[in-house]
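Predicting holo structure, fe (ii) ion bound.
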Amino acid sequence: MDKILLPRPAQNVSRRQFLLGGAALIGAASLPDALAAGKACRPTEQDIIGPFYRFGAPFETRLAGPDESGERIAIAGTVYAADCRSPLPNALIEIWQANAAGVYDTSKPGNFTERHDFHLRAMMLTDQRGHYEFETVMPGRYPVPPGLPGLEKYAGLTRPAHIHFRVTETLHVPLTTQLYFQGDPHIAKDPFAGHKHGLAIALRSDAGLLRGRFDIVLARG
Ligand SMILES: [Fe+2]
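Done. Tokens:
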């Protein structure tokens, strides 16, 4: 996929510009991207759970071992209450994804009983500031498998690269969604991602990693 690189900061800035920039950064760090950009406060959009969800992945924040092929990415963000301002500590985040070749650790859609090790799946809790972060590899694109109940008409359609999320917290509505990456040419024709622009994030290159920020707002329970 195409890399999306953010513009570099200007080299020569005045003290006032620097302070203003710092204030903007601080503000951005305490508000979801959508609010920082002046958009309305809304819960994060939902997306389908897909056929490859499995419960019980290990708690960890580094999904890919050193032998895992693929471009290294790091995703971080904050989980907010419905006011888009109050961070939610101890929210449970489950993530699962395909490997760089577009293959999941299960090839049996919808079969939640088969037993084998979890791979490229994890759970984590947000910290006291509502923050989470994990490292993994860029997931590969894959075609929708044939014969999925309700999704038969999409069989063979290449899905954009994505990471699945499920976020649950005591007093809010559980969220099932998917994270996409800006610049992916398969987003526009995807029936799930095509009209959910808030789910596609930009990535920036940083010390051998591609980093992205995905803030999440849960609906009130
Ligand atoms: Fe998927």
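The pocket of fe (ii) ion is lined by residues 50, 52, 162, 164 (CB under 6 Å).
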